[in-house]
Amino acid sequence: MQRKESAFPIIYGVLSAIISFIAVIFICQRSFRLNLQLSIIIAGVFAILFFCLSYFRGHASVEIKRIVYEYKLTDQQLAKITGMKASDFPIYQNRLQLILPKRYWPRVLDALQKYEKQQQAKE
């Protein structure tokens, strides 16, 4: 089965990088009184970091939701798979709401990917 790649993580990462680049340039020049070249270098480093962070958060969100929808998982099943509470996974109008703090997303994604591998092995 071939998966359709989502553009969301890339767009989310690029927007985050642009906003952080602009913000860091202004902070470096106005608050720290650094020259333009140094401000651009520092802003570029921050933009790369924010792109990576946002890309992986966007990717985790898309993957979590994809697995949940593909296997039609309920909040109770998600709680059992991840070892968390069912109230951490509210599903409204057949759409998972990721209200968990983002620091838990890698753990949830890992558990769901293991579940997906188990399901594919059964087929």
Q: How many β-strand runs?
A: 2
- Number of DSSP helical runs: 4
Q: Per the principal axes of the C-alpha atoms, what is the gross shape?
A: elongated
Strand content: under 5%
> Mind summarizing the main beta sheet?
2 strands, antiparallel
Give unreliable regions as ranges: none
Helix content class? 55-70%
Give the spatial strand order of the biggest sheet: 1-2
Distance between the termini: 12 Å
Give the SSE order as H and E letters: HHHEEH
How would you describe what is shown here?
This protein is mainly alpha-helical and 123 residues long. It has a two-stranded antiparallel sheet with strand order 1-2. It has helices at residues 8-31, 36-70, 75-82, 105-122, and strands spanning 91-92, 95-96.
Characterize this entry briefly.
The chain is mainly α and about 120 residues long. It has 4 helices and 2 strands. A hairpin with a 2-residue loop joins β1 and β2.
Blueprint (SSEs and pairs):
Elements: H1 8-31, H2 36-70, H3 75-82, E1 91-92, E2 95-96, H4 105-122
Antiparallel strand pairs: 1-2
Features of this protein?
123 residues, elongated, mainly alpha
